[in-house]
Specification:
alpha+beta; Jelly Rolls
C-alpha cells in the first residue's frame, strides 16, 4: 500500500500542477528592433498588439520618448496618437510607466474588458501625464483579455519642435499571463504516475 509519505508527494504534485497558472513578466520593448522605429509584432510578450510601435530614445532627443524611457533605449507608443489595443487570452495588467510624447497634461484612458470589446467592461481608469518624465500607473486590472488605450488633451510642450499630437510613450509594461490549467483527469494521471515512481524508488532502495 502507499505510505503517507508517498500520498503526500502525490498530493503536493497535484497542487503544484494546478498552481502557477499565471506567469509574471515585465515588457521593456528593447528586444523588438534595432531601428529607430518599428511595429510591435503580435506574440510579443504573449499578447497581440494593434496600433502599437516602438521608438528609440535617441531618435527624438528631449521628447517624451526620450524622457520617458525607464529601461534600455525603447518605449512603446500608440501609432498616430490613435486608440491602441493589447489583447489575447486572459491576463492581469498590473501597470506601466507613461509619458506624454508631445503634450503636457495628456490624458490616457485605459479600459479593460473580459470577452473582447463587446464583452464586459471591468475597468475604466484615466491617468494624466507630462513630457518631462515617466509616471507609474498602478492598474491592477485582473482577468482581462482586451486592454484599450485612448489618449487626448493636453498642451504642446514645445511648439517650436516638429512633433505634435496625442501620442504617449509607455515602458516597463507589467503583466501576468495566464496559462491553461491541466484538466482534473490529467492531474489525476500525473499523480498516479508519480506514485508509481515513488514505489519504484522504494523497491530500488531510493526512498524510505
Amino acid at each position: 500500500m502507499a505510505t503517507s509519505k508517498h500520498l503526500a508527494i502525490a498530493a503536493g504534485a497535484c497542487l503544484f500542477l494546478g498552481a502557477g497558472i499565471a506567469q509574471g513578466k515585465v515588457l521593456t520593448f528593447d528586444n523588438i528592433s534595432s531601428d529607430n522605429q518599428a511595429t510591435i509584432p503580435d506574440g510579443y510578450g504573449g499578447l497581440n498588439w494593434d496600433k502599437f510601435s516602438v521608438e528609440r530614445d535617441s531618435a527624438i532627443p528631449g521628447s517624451g520618448y526620450d524622457n520617458g524611457t525607464v529601461s534600455g533605449h525603447y518605449t512603446a507608443f500608440n501609432d498616430y496618437g490613435n486608440p491602441a489595443t493589447v489583447s489575447d487570452g486572459k491576463f492581469d495588467f498590473q501597470g506601466a510607466y507613461f509619458t506624454g510624447a508631445w503634450n503636457n497634461g495628456l490624458e490616457i484612458n485605459l479600459k479593460g474588458y473580459s470577452g473582447g470589446t463587446g464583452g464586459n467592461l471591468l475597468y475604466d481608469k484615466t491617468v494624466t501625464v507630462d513630457t518631462t518624465g515617466p509616471t507609474w500607473f498602478k492598474a491592477n486590472f485582473k482577468g482581462i483579455d482586451t486592454l484599450i488605450f485612448s489618449s487626448s488633451g493636453g498642451t504642446d510642450a514645445n511648439p517650436n519642435d516638429n512633433g505634435q499630437g496625442t501620442h504617449f510613450a509607455m515602458d516597463n509594461f507589467k503583466l501576468k499571463k495566464y496559462k491553461k490549467v491541466p484538466e482534473p483527469g490529467t492531474l489525476f494521471l500525473s499523480a498516479i504516475g508519480l506514485l508509481g515512481l515513488a514505489f519504484a524508488g522504494r523497491r530500488m532502495g531510493l526512498s524510505a
